[in-house]
Amino acid sequence: MEIDLWIWLLPIGLLPVFFAMGWFAARVDMKTVLKQAKSVPEGFYRSLDALVDRNTGKAARNLAEVVEQRPADSYDLSLTLGKIYRLRGENDKAVSMHKALLESPDTVGEKRERVLFELGQDYQSAGLVDRAEQIFLELQEGNMAKQAGEVLLNIYQQDRDWEKAIHTAKLLGHDELTYQFEIAQFYCEMAQAALFKSDFDTALGHAKTALAVNSKCTRANMILGDIELKRGNFRTAIDAYSAIEKQNHAYLSMVGERLYDAYDALGKPEEGLNVLIGYTQAFPQIDLINVIYDKSLLLKGEKAANETAVEIVRRKPDLNGVYRLLGLQISDLHPAWKADADMIRSVIGRQLQKNWMYRCRNCHFKSQAYFWHCPACNKWETFTPNKIEV
Q1: How far is CA 237 from CA 102, 133, 232, 261, 266, in A?
Q2: CATH number of the domain that residue 266 is part of
């Protein structure tokens, strides 16, 4: 019984000891924190405060003073100061700062790789892309391989060096991020360039490879259709264009006229027109009204073309449709209303020019021209395939 009693009393008796040990540890940690806080130069806090205020000039000056005061502990601070110089466009200062770090005997191993990575970005920012590429290629074998590869991929896309871009993307690919989507677009770029030179065989090979890489690549089928259309293989062109419906029907608006032309070349213009009309019935959001009106006017006359266009507009009323509808109906209006209707249509037309655009779904960049590669955020196939009101 006495042993059992001691088992219960022992933890209670040790409580003051544990409390004293915890209190002592907390005091030691707090003293350490306070000591370290006092050892941080005041200029560091001023620099940090300037960065918060987005005053990079003041931040750079204060941080430069700290680096001069504490050269022994300047590795991380110098690395950051170089980044600030690069952010400000002072690329020569950034290069000098990072080169000086490389010359330090303490900058070895992973530290050296970090500095080289920053120096490569300095050169890229300064427009010295060849030097930047050389550095990033050197880093492909180390711990910074992924970061260096991503910058290289960006460089090759800007330089339109698609073969190197494909090679780099394949190296970067892994189970979670394969880069197949981007690689397909790179092959499409090469196919488009070959098609421009009328090198149909090369263009065909690249487009088919793009589809093999990404079976949902609508652009590849567009290019395949264009190749076959120029070769005179009109039925094959129709098959390529029609395949877009199953990939992403929103892109049908981009091939509507070419699809009609292929049917027309086969002597089946009315069948082609009916296919386009069928698309607007199945997918009201795609914009085919202009090509349908023009072809209907050619095949069936003004009255039938007007009726078809009005039906499409009423099925999906929007600013562009109203503009078209006013144009169709204005001749039938009472003379007293014609001037007002024409004025209304003119106002809508000006508004369309301002607010009817393609827009990047990633960064919301707006443009009257369609881009496969967004010039603002560098993402692929993010533009809306139909113009929208923005």
Answers
A1: 58, 41, 9, 10, 11
A2: 1.25.40.10
Alpha helices (H) in 72-179, listed in sequence order = 75-87, 91-103, 110-125, 129-138, 145-158, 162-172
Residues 6+ apart with CB under 8 A from 252: 244, 245, 259, 279, 283, 286, 288
Residues 312, 273: contact at Cβ < 8 Å? no
Domain identity same for 361 and 328:
yes
For residue 116, pLDDT beyond 70: yes
Structural domain of 168: 74-172
Place of tokens 């009472």: 334
Please spell the DSSP secondary structure of 361-372, one letter per residue.
TTT--EESS--S
- Considering the domain architecture, whether residues 167 and 185 belong to the same structural domain is answered as no
- For residues 271 and 146, give the distance between their C-alpha atoms in angstroms, rounded to a whole number: 52
* Final residue of a structural domain among 155, 172, 189: 172
Do 283 and 252 meet the contact criterion of CB atoms below 8 Å apart? yes
Q: What is the pLDDT of residues 180-213, one digit of tens each?
A: 999 999 999 999 999 999 999 999 999 999 999 9
Query: Which band of pLDDT confidence, cut at 50, 70 and 90, is reported for residue 79?
Result: confident
Query: DSSP strand E in the chain: where?
Result: 356-359, 366-367, 388-389
Verify that 163 and 190 share a domain, yes or no.
no
- Residues sharing a CB contact under 8 Å with residue 93, sequence separation 6 or more, in sequence order: 82, 85
Q: What is the pLDDT of residues 245-265, one digit of tens each?
A: 999 999 999 999 999 999 999
Q: Read off the pLDDT band of 323 (50, 70, 90).
A: confident
Scan for tokens 């089928």, then name that residue.
Answer: 221
207 and 251 housed in the same domain: yes
Contacts 24+ apart (CB under 8 A), 152-156: 154/378, 155/124, 155/129
DSSP 359: E
Residue 111 near residue 84, CB atoms below 8 Å:
no
Same domain, 161 and 195: no
